[in-house]
Glucosylceramidase
Amino acid sequence: VCVCNATYCDTLDPVVLPPPGTYVKYESSKAGKRLERSQGSFQRSFQRSFQRNAQTPDVVLTVDVTQRYQKLKGFGGSITDAAAINVLSLPETAQDHLLRSYFSEEGLEYNLIRIPMASCDFSLHAYTYDDVPFDYELAHFSLRDEDTKMKASGDPLLQIPLLHRALAMSKQPLSLYATPWTSPTWMKTSESFVGKGTLKGQAGDKYHKTWANYFVRFLDEYAKHNLTFWAVTAENEPTAGLINNYPFQCLGFTAEQQRDFIARDLGPALANSSHRDIRLIILDDNRIHLPHWAKVVLEDEEAARYVHGIGIHWYLDFISPIQDTVVPTHELFPDYFILATEACVGSNFWERNVILGCWERGNQYSHSILTNLNNYVTGWNDWNLALDLQGGPNWVKNYADSPIIVDANEGVFYKQPMFYHMGHFSKFIPEGSQRVGLVASKESKKTALEYTAFQRPDGAVVVVVLNR
């Protein structure tokens, strides 16, 4: 790991394009390289250069910019309550180092931030923005301290909150998107934040209308703090709320229920609000539900007209190959973007939550990102931006690992291999880049290498190669 504190933190230089005929290489390795920069020149032809040392390379990768695929949205992480608590537990200059590490030109240049709409498991307790029963007018709707004191700027005596600080550090626009875990309990069949439960009634009724208006109120309240959202997702892991005894905040929807809620309630509520340009993302759950979920929602014209994209989580990837899920979804619905919205390691019961300096976990991130990018996915969002040494706080002890781990007692934070793996993508492939062809030559020996290529808006080509 790399240790940062109030006085020291490693930085990266802003990307400068190499002169024609040359390239810049950034390398990270288990042995300790961390985005180490070097330069070189291209030779005119292989043959001449190889006869001298009589060695042919095992693999030759050829970029083909005439083959063009999806355009990139970006990379980022989530500012959960837990992430905010951890950042703000550091001395102020160390907080700045941490935020710069993610958002500035001397860091990873993240451009996506996912924000829970009220609480999730990575909160200190369960809450929503209107826990007053049967308040169909949302008269008691209000943001909580978790928002105003940590995420959006409220009282000037408080830390100037994180989203504004991140926005100020970033040289490109940041795209914020919000996701609810649960509605207020009085809207739910379970009358509980947790466990199996859906909205009461059916689409079009007062519960569904009120829940749709809750999204609009959330966007209104954040707008008062000068924060505008790029997108919302219709629900985090809607299938979780269909599981008996689910341990943390959830709200169940089948694909059919999500379709009807969007067509009759959420879609019209957003379209008739001052946030009519906001993108709406469906699913936001494991890709094992594709292509079925997309078919149900997007083959319905009423629902489809309000939807822009499909969100996927990585947790069941090992039993749902991308070729059987994401690829057919893209082929059926090429006009809808697919975005990887959540991933973390260490949350499975058989894993250690936090393993400081674990290179293999960085490999897992890169492998997932490469697999997704090579199959039409437009971006990849990590889960918590920062957690503590335990992998929390998390009110149900569903601890996990994170690219940055904070030790508040020592006033330091650790940048893990996952952090640098993320940087190999986020720093060099900006929003608007387009994936291009990259093929291994016929003579190439069978290779375990994984790779992708993108052409940036400035015309430069980025090739990322993972050697696991």
